[in-house]
Amino acid sequence: MSAQNEPVHLAFDALVSLLQQIFVRHGTSAEVAETLALNCAGAERDGAHSHGVFRIPGYVSTLNSGWVNGRAVPVVDDVASGFVRVDAGGGFAQPALAAARPLLVEKARSAGIAALAIHNSHHFAALWPDVEPFAEEGLVALSVVNSMTCVVPHGADRPLFGTNPIAFAAPRADGGPIVFDLATSAIAHGDVQIAARKGEKLPAGMGVDSLGQPTQDPKAILEGGALLPFGGHKGSALSMMVELLAAALTGGNFSFEFDWSNHPGAKTPWTGQLMIVIDPSKSAGQPFALRSQELVRQMHAAGLRRLPGDRRHREREKSAASGIALDAAALAQLRELAGE
Amino acid sequence: MSAQNEPVHLAFDALVSLLQQIFVRHGTSAEVAETLALNCAGAERDGAHSHGVFRIPGYVSTLNSGWVNGRAVPVVDDVASGFVRVDAGGGFAQPALAAARPLLVEKARSAGIAALAIHNSHHFAALWPDVEPFAEEGLVALSVVNSMTCVVPHGADRPLFGTNPIAFAAPRADGGPIVFDLATSAIAHGDVQIAARKGEKLPAGMGVDSLGQPTQDPKAILEGGALLPFGGHKGSALSMMVELLAAALTGGNFSFEFDWSNHPGAKTPWTGQLMIVIDPSKSAGQPFALRSQELVRQMHAAGLRRLPGDRRHREREKSAASGIALDAAALAQLRELAGE
Questions:
Q1: Interface confidence (ipTM) of the complex
Q2: Which terminus of chain B has fewer Cβ atoms in its 10 Å neighbourhood, N or C?
Q3: Is B75 left (phi over 0), alpha (psi -120 to 50) or beta?
Q4: Is B212 on the interface with A (CB under 8 A)?
Q5: Residue A103, SS3?
Q6: Catalytic site residues of A?
């Protein structure tokens, strides 16, 4: 049976096709399947395993539960010269972003800055794939998305906020974009799940058990416990800001507002997402990408070896050269879900 | 001499007048004096002592050094339907914001979102006074400003970033705005100075000494040492974002770029500032202020006693009722600086 755990290498396109097949087989439209498959295969390719194929059983479960509409057609609303609104129709956020993207880019280039407010949407993926492509075309992008109650606000007794990530991307003259994607919780939910699956202990300060007591056991966090914000009251303030921007400002649900109890197997938070895109060519002085290159140069000179996103880009190059490594058991499970 | 240390209570307007007199006497225009005096007296009134009258000797020192232009007239540039640029002319950032404010608000209400990029500016004050007034008129505001090299990026050997604060304000239906202002360093520079003056030790994890070793001695941090970012690599990523938005995007200096060695007594970082203002009436669903009220209600229900900004608002009420408490020695120093 040991062959089951040897890695198999798959080309990016082959993985995308396989994932598309899984999504379509579980009720999504071809368009939605393509968007989600590219997103998920991209995370796996970049070594972002907690948002890679690890998520597929969750996607299948939530689609099977009827909680999310895999065939939703996003409705794009051109609200103002710098503001686009999308009703994702109870579907995933990524197809909503894809539908609004051309208008958003046009507005950002014309107005200098533009906002995209997505509501009635489910976000179950990493957030950096939403911002990175803007930086690849010379724009600066910031995005926030709220999720589901699992983080105790600093100074509170009970969980209320989601893991509420903030992602940022900016172009750079001499290399790939500068990109980060950080949960405002002390640890991402997916990483807790992965630690629980591997039977590993977490570092201190990540979460509490069902009695509100500090714990390093990922299972105690997942079973009635909760996460803590990163960086104490500051991370907590940022998490609150994400609730306000991603939910209050878009017309989406707060992380504590949706009730999926009638949909056993539901996994995806039904909330909102805000994107802000800025055209840095409107700024004064040297071109932005030369300035960001200078900042990176100085960060390295100060002794910083790795920039946020560097590891992902190295993994991406490795995957391009030798394929995406999946363990045989995981691949077999994907093939089964695809009905092969 | 003990009478020297008994608090004296001053009305807000009286403190503003006294500070105006100090600024004008040290070379600012009447307009700049008014803006800075209102800002500084407002911080003192709200109990934000590290940005209150404690800063006045620093303002005087930097004005005397010729490093900052106290008579600068900001030049406002209407760049695009959502983008305003201001050259602060080597003066303070607050008069630049004041000059651009009407245009910025008009653009935010019309485009749904607008950016203000200030460069060639000095910011020596708290950041929340820049965002709070927008929320008081129903807008959501976010601002970042970079400062001067004193924070070691996570994973680096030497300081590079400034304390690089992020401030946010949002309206709320049943009370004052939700406001926070957080340094992306583990502690604000002003608080290190206050601890050093009082001879107090800092909590662990705030900074390093001149050899890069962890220290709890504020003097060791101020004399050749440096601060750490809050929340490890996440706070560090946010600090990097502030450099990119406040400097690269505006045309301002990075925190490590200016050289004030020819201006002994110079204290004010010569950098840039970005403001993003959003009109939440463009969003879907219930009015934003009712939604933020609901979030606050749920935060209290989860056991949170104090919201960010609550302490400031209580101090403000106290100051309104009984005047702003200053110790007699500090007041005597202010009077002397005012030439009284």
A1: 0.96
A2: N
A3: beta
A4: no
A5: helix
A6: 50-51, 191
Residue of chain A with shortest Cα separation from B276? A113
Distinct helix (H) and strand (E) counts, chain A: 11, 12
Q: Answer positive or negative: Cα dihedral of A257, A70, A191, A330.
A: positive
Residue A271 Cα, gap to closest chain B Cα (Å): 13
At B173, list the tokens: 């239906």
B321: number of Cβ within 10 Å? 7
Chain A residues in contact with B304 (beta carbon < 8 A): 153, 155-156
Question: Smallest Cα–Cα separation from B10: which of B339, B335, B337?
Answer: B335
The DSSP annotation for B176-201 comes to: SPEEEEE-SBSS-HHHHHHHHHHTPP
| Cα–Cα dist A301/B158, whole Å | 9
What is the pTM (predicted TM-score) of this model? 0.96
- The C-alpha atoms of residue A206 and residue A161 are separated, in whole angstroms, by 15
For each of the domains in chain A, give its residue range(s) and CATH number, in order of start: 1-64+309-340 (1.10.1530.10), 72-185+229-308 (3.30.1370.60), 186-225 (3.30.60.50)
Give residue-wise pLDDT tens across range B139-165: 999 999 999 999 999 999 999 999 999
Q: Are A141 and A168 in contact (CB under 8 A)?
A: yes
How is chain B split among helix, strand and coil, in percent rounded to 5?
A: 45, 20, 35
Q: What is the pLDDT of residues A165-189, one digit of tens each?
A: 999 999 999 989 999 999 999 998 8
